Amino acid sequence: MHRLTIWAPEGLPEIVAGTDLGVAIGDLLAAQEPADRPAEGDVVVVTSKIVSKAEGQVVAAADREQAITDETVRVVATRERPDGPPLRIVENRLGLVMAAAGVDASNTPEGTVLLLPKDPDASARALRAALRARFGLDRLGVVVTDTAGRPWRAALVDIAIGAAGIAPADDLRGGTDTHGRPLNVTVTAVVDEIASATELVRGKATGRAVAVVRGADRHLSDDDGPGAATLVRTGPEDLFREGSREAYDRGRADALKPLGHAAT
Amino acid sequence: MHRLTIWAPEGLPEIVAGTDLGVAIGDLLAAQEPADRPAEGDVVVVTSKIVSKAEGQVVAAADREQAITDETVRVVATRERPDGPPLRIVENRLGLVMAAAGVDASNTPEGTVLLLPKDPDASARALRAALRARFGLDRLGVVVTDTAGRPWRAALVDIAIGAAGIAPADDLRGGTDTHGRPLNVTVTAVVDEIASATELVRGKATGRAVAVVRGADRHLSDDDGPGAATLVRTGPEDLFREGSREAYDRGRADALKPLGHAAT
Where in this chain does the record put each Coenzyme F420:L-glutamate ligase-like domain (chains A, B) (predicted)? Predict the structure, then answer.
């Protein structure tokens, strides 16, 4: 029977700047029943929040808007809001397009906001090394998750912003479907699906920042692999590089410039 | 321990137009070991492909481009391709924004393409009724999945296009985070995460079109609920209602019209 199991233990202590995350997570997992400790083929999934906290990626909340500005590489779209500063959807320094550049005001002490980790793929690699050593494992994946909205759909899902020891995407191109036809375009974002799956067990308001996934071992790699950065898809080919309103306004402005008309 | 388990049995027969899906899936699940048959609190997840096949939502492949046109309510963005007709990202009749309007040329006999189900929420409700009766269950969720790309990220994930007996989103607004602060914006697309999670077990080229999820019972509802259609988020407020190039071109054209200039 094809089966996947995900579990998320309680009891991770508060993570603060300087916490050795590999030790803290290793301790948490070592304290579980033997069957719930990491084994060959498992994927350990952690929220970016605890990675950020351990790295000290925390700034004062009064500077939230400035923090968003600082994390912004490129503004994609904005929307005025009656009850606050404009919503900004931006490309951040990790290439991720997100509301508020991924700056997070929840699950962090009052008066602070969390920035995203400096390099979540590197954090995933470090965590993988620590946990492989701790538990004596060869094949172990690590995924670092964050929460994001998406165009055309309400509500949020978790995605992978860091990954090590696991192929980020399951490339079936070259394979065939059940009718023997070539699968040309079916590339599955495995680590995003893993992130979403674990969110169902971790939750948001729970303090369960670590989960283990068993049954996805066919996606694991012997090396660290290319990381979740390979799922970033921005650049001049991006069909949604700008919000519709921003692109429209720019079209108007560009049309009127050579004619000496100001855009109104 | 917070735990989620997902399994996907083999052995669903080929589904064709007129197949009673409730019976076919019921038979499949009834043939499993007792622990793997649906129980109170489970969610049964099925691909839209088998729903489409059972409904006869199949058209001739030669008409794939026409089928896409017929399923299109509104073109969002297009991109020329050197080796085929332009890629069209469109809003289809279900409000879903997808490449090729969700018309599917894989996992269907040569010479045919699959359209999306006529009403996946209704299909979910019918399936829920059939399986509740078959297995004597009060609390059972059903989710119908499809595969979709997303802006700014490579590769595809599964999402929910139909749902019954389960809250589509986990609305934590009004709750508090681990620091006691109000969670104002954290609404999780639970059924999309369930769809993604099951894809890890179903796969694409496998014929495993049905999965069961155990451990998500807190999301279940006693009634059918509003369905996955509530996750559709389009309309005039949509910041990405048009592709950037389309919006830019329209801005240029609109700027030049009153001046009597043709847009070049």
Answer: 12-215
For residues A209 and A238, state if they share a domain.
no
List the single residue in B153, B181, B263 with the smallest CB-CB distance to A231. Answer: B153
Return residues 200-259 of B near A (CB < 8 Å): 200-208, 215-216, 230-234, 237-256, 259
Contact B240 A151 (CB under 8 A): yes
- Using the predicted structure, report yes or no on whether residue B222 has a pLDDT greater than 60: yes
Look at residue A164 and tell me if it is in a domain: yes
- The answer to whether residues A76 and A243 touch, using CB atoms and an 8 Å cutoff, is yes
Element holding B122 (H helix, E strand): helix B120-135
% pLDDT > 70, chain B: 91
Q: What per-residue confidence (pLDDT) applies to A67?
A: 92
How far is Cα of residue B190 from the mean position of the Cα atoms in its chain?
A: 12
Q: Given a cut of 60, is residue B182 above it in pLDDT?
A: no
Pick the closest to residue A85 from A101, A64, A112 (CA basis): A64
Instruction: Tell me the average pLDDT across B40-63.
Output: 94
Amino acid occupying residue A168: P
| The pLDDT of residue B110 is above 90 | no
Global ipTM: 0.94
The boundaries of the domain holding residue A245 are 234-264
Q: Counting beta carbons within 10 angstroms of the beta carbon of residue B230, is it exposed (0 to 12), middle (13 to 18) or buried (19 or more)?
A: middle
Residue B93 lies in a domain: no
> How many domains in chain B?
2
Single out the residue of B45, B205, B176, B221 nearest to residue A106, CA to CA.
B176
Query: Which helix (H) or strand (E) covers residue B29, if one does?
Result: helix B21-30
Residues B171 and B197 both lie in one domain: yes
B225 and B252 together in one domain: no
CA distance B104 to chain A (A): 11
Contact A98, A92 (CB under 8 A): yes
Question: Reduced to 3 states, what is the DSSP secondary structure of residue B238?
Answer: coil
For chain A, the average pLDDT equals: 92
B107-122 average pLDDT score: 88
The rounded percent of chain A whose pLDDT value lies above 70 is: 91
Strands A141-150 and A43-47: parallel
| Chain B interface includes A181 (CB < 8 A) | yes
What is chain A written as a DSSP string? Answer: -EEEEEEE-S-PPPP-TT--HHHHHHHHHHTS-GGGS--TT-EEEEEHHHHHHHHT-EEEGGGHHHHHHHHEEEEEEEEEETTEEEEEEEEETTS-EEEGGG-B-SSS-TTEEEPPPS-HHHHHHHHHHHHHHHHT-SS-EEEEEEEEEETTEEEEEEEEEEEESB-SSEE-TT-B-TTS-B--S-EE-HHHHHHHHHHHHH-SSS---EEEEES-GGGB-SS--S-GGGGB--STT-TTSS-HHHHHHHHHHHHHGGGTPPP-
Helical H runs in B137-207? 190-202
Residue A193 reports pLDDT greater than 60: yes
